[in-house]
Please model this.
Amino acid sequence: MGKDGVTVGEAIIAGKEVLMNMINELIEEFRPTMTLEDLQRVYTKTVDEVIFKEEDKSNSRYVGGEFNLDYVSEKGYTVGYKLFFQNEQKKIFELEAKSRELSITKLSVKVREQLAAEKNIKFEIPEPSQSARDKYNRENLNRVQ
Model:
């Protein structure tokens, strides 16, 4: 239990909900021609922030992750991520989140066809860049001041 009475589990759940709400809103706003590259752009900044927050909060190091698109039906799909961290004791732990079902009509025809055929598309989530970390640190410093 933290100083503010919130357990680590509650904080993680709240963070995942915020992240997935942001991703859902961004995805819903795209034209029905969203490519795989568009999806990567949508999630990169937000997932990077989740990584930075978790590293800072738990004094851990991001070691890898994946972003998934899962085919649900001809009308919908979901997006989600799994992020892996290593703590000071060298133990690996995972953060995971998944969106509600999204309208498949927002995706380009090519992506729809690929997702329907493959049922799941995965992207590796690379370690965020140092420039993204620097920007995150500046933004959070400004929030504190």
Summary: Helices lie at 8-29, 36-58, 109-118, 130-144. Strands lie at 61-73, 76-86, 92-98, 102-103, 120-124. Residues 46 and 56 are 15 Å apart (CA to CA). The mean pLDDT is 82.
